[in-house]
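Interim report, section 4.2 (structural modelling).
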Amino acid sequence: DARVTQTPRHKVTEMGQEVTMRCQPILGHNTVFWYRQTMMQGLELLAYFRNRAPLDDSGMPKDRFSAEMPDATLATLKIQPSEPRDSAVYFCASGLVRDGTLVQETQYFGPGTRLLVL
Amino acid sequence: KQEVTQIPAALSVPEGENLVLNCSFTDSAIYNLQWFRQDPGKGLTSLLLIQSSQREQTSGRLNASLDKSSGRSTLYIAASQPGDSATYLCAPLMNRDDKIIFGKGTRLHILP
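Predicted structure of the assembly:
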């Protein structure tokens, strides 16, 4: 049963601390998405990668957020320094794109990391 | 820029009723449109996907329709059950491999 996994599931931290969230995409998927969900804004795309290369990170505050894919099985989203307004649920999703098209035409979502910055 | 609106934002109905969730989008140049379900504290599950060339898709008690030219989609749930309680999100995909734009969802509560 292939699933996207995310760690940690919950994180409480103090303002100014570094936060690192990890995502393991479904094996074989070559596209990874990071989303942030809040009550006010809903689901927003922060960044996405294809074959480990960043394609679009325009939704991400660049001064404090960074996203990387050290290898094909791991994606990370880092916030440094964290602020209370970063409190949200962060979702990772993965998909398979071939010849410019989502092969299964959908994304598979992880369970999310619920972040609270005090 | 694509904007997706879902109406109503929240809905409570007694079990057994048929109901309709509405979605509108501002840019009709979509590749496909999906309806997702999100349970509290969980991720998203894709329910139905409609290609831009299709008018509707059905899965069990769910039926999704798409009118691309008017920028509208509806999700019809027949004979609602308490297990249908969740948030339903409408999400058009703009290009063949571009990002999905989500609406803010309709929170549905089915009363036993």
